[in-house]
Write a structure and sequence with these properties.
The chain is an all-alpha fold. It has two helices and no strands.
Length: 63
């Protein structure tokens, strides 16, 4: 799961390296920052979803 092409994970670094290889120049700093923030938000949203799903399955919360 760490190799998913999400910028906050290692797979994101590989995706950036691949993009740089195709473009033959590095991505802009602003683009990298936007991608990292979006990737981090995606990972945090996934963690929140999984946590809420687990809590909903507990008998205390009606699961």
């Amino acid at each position: 799961i760490n190799l998913l092409p999400i910028p906050a994970l290692d797979g994101g670094h590989l995706a950036f390296y691949a993009a740089e290889a195709v473009r033959r120049k590095p991505l802009g700093l602003r683009s990298q920052e936007w991608a990292y923030r979006t990737g981090l938000a995606l990972v945090l949203a996934l963690m929140l979803f999984v946590t809420l799903n687990d809590l909903a399955s507990l008998p205390v919360f009606g699961g």
